[in-house]
Amino acid sequence: MKNQRVLYMVPLLLIAAYLAFFADKTPEEELVAPVARTTPIEPVGQGQPAASAPQAAAMPQFSQEPDASGVIPLAPRVQLAELAAAGGADLFAHGVGPSPEEQAAQQAQQQQEQQQAVQPPPQFPYAFIGKQFDGRDWQAFFEKGDTTLIVSSGAVVDNDFRVQSIKPPQMLVLHVPSKQIINIDIDNAQ
User: Fold this and answer.
1) CA of 24: how far to CAs of 16, 18, 27, 114, 167, in Å?
2) Exposed, middle or buried, 173 (CB in 10 Å: 0-12/13-18/19+)?
3) What confidence tier does 57 reach under pLDDT thresholds 50, 70, 90?
4) pTM to 2 decimals?
5) Selection from 123, 147, 148 nearest residue 139 by Cα
6) Where would I find the beta strands (DSSP E) of the chain?
7) Distant-in-sequence, close-in-space partners of 173: CB < 8 Å, separation ≥ 6
């Protein structure tokens, strides 16, 4: 087993030694062309004091158009610093948070939800009188005055109540306007 391993490793070692000693190690001749500066750079602490420096009348502009190679050039730091000092657009404001209008809308929605949560769900207006299992689903029977109502899962009653599920001994009904669940007790008697 060791001999087989040595037979595989020796040729790999020879190839690595050949590449280390005899491979082409010359650097590539490709050079990057220097870029000419458009604005002079003044060292810090030299030149005119900041108070007496001439102020630009307009906001500094930099090109967002791609050059001949298709690359958008970087904006000089001097122009970016002037933008920040002049109170221009916040360069780092992307994705910071919701705007004041959005915050006000969120607060109003939260207050509305809190008011709805405080209010108890309305009572189901029908009285339970019985239930039946048809082999697949449960049906429940309700009455209100002279009206008898037969409901199954998914039924909508008076456009305000939707039956979510009927699983004796309970029936869950959603009050659609307030989106609150009402738990109706239906007895186990068949």
Assistant:
1) 14, 11, 9, 75, 80
2) buried
3) very low
4) 0.39
5) 148
6) 127-133, 138-144, 147-151, 156-157, 161-167, 170-175, 180-185
7) 124, 157, 161, 162, 163, 164, 181, 182, 184
